[in-house]
UniProtKB/TrEMBL annotation:
Domain Protein kinase: 1-262
UniProt name for this protein: non-specific serine/threonine protein kinase
UniProt-listed CDD domains: STKc_MAPKAPK
Reactions this protein catalyses: L-threonyl-[protein] + ATP = O-phospho-L-threonyl-[protein] + ADP + H(+); L-seryl-[protein] + ATP = O-phospho-L-seryl-[protein] + ADP + H(+)
The gene coding this protein: LOC111144154
Upper classification of the organism: Eukaryota, Metazoa, Chordata, Craniata, Vertebrata
Signal sequence, start to end: none
Tagged with keyword Zinc: no
The family this protein is said to belong to: Belongs to the protein kinase superfamily. CAMK Ser/Thr protein kinase family.
Record-linked PROSITE patterns: PROTEIN_KINASE_DOM (PS50011), PROTEIN_KINASE_ST (PS00108)
Highest taxon above the source species: Eukaryota
Organism (species): Enhydra lutris kenyoni
Length: 340
């Protein structure tokens, strides 16, 4: 995570509100972040989003010193319910249904919708960042970890002073990429919720193999039976729209929330899924699945962040410079004719 020094002392524990009257619920004292611009950016983005629906709340932020280094100490609400998929794994023989999956995706989508409305792209939506408030049946699912969050602005490439010369569609501006990264993550999480295994995987034991990268870029995945035999076509269609290889073709969060499978989740069929059984059987490999998704998201961020679109006025493109000279010469000749 950018801005987080993992050598900072661990300080993870929960304590009741009786020790701090100003806090109304149990809280979580996170680890220390060694102070840096990236660390402050992470805290700023999370603070801005704090209080939004289905987002882990920051209660306080403190500045302190540790071994003469400036640190940031973040106090968040205590999420005692564990990770999303761990909760499903622990269901035992209790069936996990398609309707439950739709309701979970609606909750995650609500968090992303709030972030995108605040011009924040999370860029790290993955299983371990989706936590429940408690072990109770009515626990609330919330999104956390803003280490890769990024502020987005209106796409400057829509104005005539920018040009996407020879740039692939997926890098047509930071806003289009950053927010579409969250939509791809929603597609992967939804896929796993409905069957218990990911759409893309590595065959080599690496966190992300060349073959896995290729399958992600080409959108090579399927809906194999028996796990997918009873899943509704509406759900499969929504996944296809989220896992589009061209980020500009993926659904926006507004389109996602307006999809019938999401906004009419109460009428989604209560079809029992294979998810809980598959997650239990593959429990020993779950850490590998999480690592693969982490690596895939990291690869996406690198792919898009390293490409910058230059303003036409500052571009050093040789073909463009040649055209400029030609246009300048034509303009001079025209002025000469007009002066005669």
């Amino acid at each position: 995570m950018p801005g987080v020094d993992r050598s900072a002392p661990a300080a993870e524990f929960c304590f009741p509100t009786s020790s701090r009257e100003s806090w109304s619920d149990a809280v979580h004292l996170s680890g220390l972040l060694y102070d840096s611009p990236k660390a402050r950016q992470e805290v700023d983005h999370h603070w801005q989003a704090s209080g939004g629906p289905h987002i882990v709340q920051i209660l306080d932020v403190y500045e302190n010193l540790h071994h003469s280094k400036r640190c940031l100490l973040i106090v968040m609400e205590c999420m005692e319910g564990g990770e999303l998929f761990s909760r499903i794994q622990e269901r035992g023989d209790q069936a996990f249904t398609e309707r439950e999956a739709a309701e979970i995706m609606r909750d995650i989508g609500t968090a992303i919708q709030f972030l995108h409305s605040q011009n924040i792209a999370h860029r790290d939506v993955k299983p371990e960042n989706l936590l429940y408030t408690s072990k109770e049946k009515d626990a609330v699912l919330k999104l956390t970890d803003f280490g890769f969050a990024k502020e987005t602005t209106q796409n400057a490439l829509q104005t005539p002073c920018y040009t996407p010369y020879y740039v692939a569609p997926e890098v047509l501006g930071p806003e289009k990429y950053d927010k579409s990264c969250d939509m791809w993550s929603l597609g992967v999480i939804m896929y796993i919720l409905l069957c218990g295994f990911p759409p893309f995987y590595s065959n080599t034991g690496q966190a992300i193999s060349p073959g896995m990268k290729r399958r992600i870029r080409l959108g090579q995945y399927g809906f194999p039976n028996p796990e997918w035999s009873e899943v509704s076509e509406d759900a499969k269609q929504l996944i296809r729209l989220l896992l589009k290889t061209d980020p500009t073709e993926r659904l926006t969060i507004t389109q996602f929330m307006n999809h019938p499978w999401i906004n009419q989740s109460m009428v989604v069929p209560q079809t029992p899924l294979h998810t809980a059984r598959v997650l239990q059987e593959d429990r020993d490999h779950w850490d590998e699945v999480k690592e693969e998704m982490t690596s895939a998201l990291a690869t996406m961020r690198v792919d898009y962040d390293q490409v910058q679109i230059k303003d036409l006025k500052t571009s050093n493109n040789r073909l463009l410079n040649k055209r400029r000279k030609k246009q300048a010469g034509g303009s001079s000749a025209s002025q000469g004719c007009n002066n005669q």
